[in-house]
Amino acid sequence: MAEDLSDRNSYCDRCAIAAFCAPEKPGSSQHTVMGELRPLHKTIDAGQTLFRLGDKFTALFGIRSGCFKSTVSDAGGREHIINFYLPGELIGFDAIYPATYRSDAIALCDSSVCALPFKDLLDLAATRPALQWRLFEIMSREAFYSATLAGNCTAAERLSAFLVGLSARFAALGLSAEEFVLPMSREDIASHLRLTPETISRLLREFQNDGLLGVDQRRVEIIDHDGLLRQAGPMNRWPG
User: Fold this and answer.
1) Quick check: is 135 in a domain?
2) Burial, 130: exposed, middle or buried (Cβ in 10 Å; 0-12, 13-18, 19+)?
3) Is residue 147, in this structure, part of any structural domain at all?
4) Torsion of Cα atoms, 195 then 198 then 200 then 204, to 10°
5) What is the rounded average pLDDT for all residues in the chain?
6) Domain range for 222
7) 0.85 exceeded by the pTM?
8) Please, are residues 91 and 66 in contact by the beta-carbon 8 Å criterion?
9) Half-sphere exposure of 41 toward its Cβ, with a 13 Å CA cutoff?
């Protein structure tokens, strides 16, 4: 049965930089990332904001539990969703330049985060090449996805890649990669993929009819992962 992302108090063991948060060997005198950074743990209720567009950039945030969407609004007040963030992932990389947050980060369910002061993280990464490399990997993956999302991909490629990505991200949490509950609405998915909610609903029906998916409200079962992967084509950001 699929697990609610807000059920656990913390997914710290699955965090993107978890390998750097504990000594390499039991009893080692090596300081941990957490010990050196002294992160601030915060809880954010569903619908509340972690940071807002224009706030001064001071920290990256590791998602301990829950789910966030990063959003901006156009001149008419219409919301555009830049990305979604699940437990174990880091949010805030796009604020490094120009040193202010570039969106609003809104909790989709009751969530908790770990604030990692960026200056301290940068200093620590300078002495730990593996940590520095890991941060580069995360930034590269986000940059690749943003570039492909802005490209001339079909609606089917966009939705397929999104679902393949969610599958990989749930697997990274130790959860089922084949069956999961979407933490975001179809309207939010449509906003993120630059599609309409009607298109999302139509494609989900088509994917179901083609034997790729089983869909029941927000519950998704991936039946033909390879078929979905082929349909994602050039947009797949989780090649392995």
Assistant:
1) no
2) exposed
3) no
4) -160
5) 86
6) 155-235
7) yes
8) no
9) 9
